[in-house]
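Minimal example, chain plus zinc ion.
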Amino acid sequence: MPLYDYRCETCGKPFQAKHGFNESASACPNCASVDIHRIITSAPTVARGMVTLAGDSRHASKEQLVDKWAEETPKLRKKLVDKLGEDFVNQNAPHLKPSQDE
Ligand SMILES: [Zn+2]
């Protein structure tokens, strides 16, 4: 079972309690008060880490795709030109044009 951090509102003492995810600690072990609040310490850190990781991987994969595309497009175009001819490629695959001025 996971261990949760609590703070008692009556005596102000922090304590830890083991219980299931959907349960909650019933009372302060120091003064038996039920006026207790769970202290969330790890969740926000984990959430921030996941967001940062996701952002980094999206950024990296996008750059990798752009690099791959820039590398593969001239090769692909040359293959098509060799096989089908310059005019055919210009007409049927204009997005493979190597020129930047569109
Ligand atoms: Zn207490």
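The radius of gyration is 30 Å. The first strand starts at residue 3 and ends at 8.
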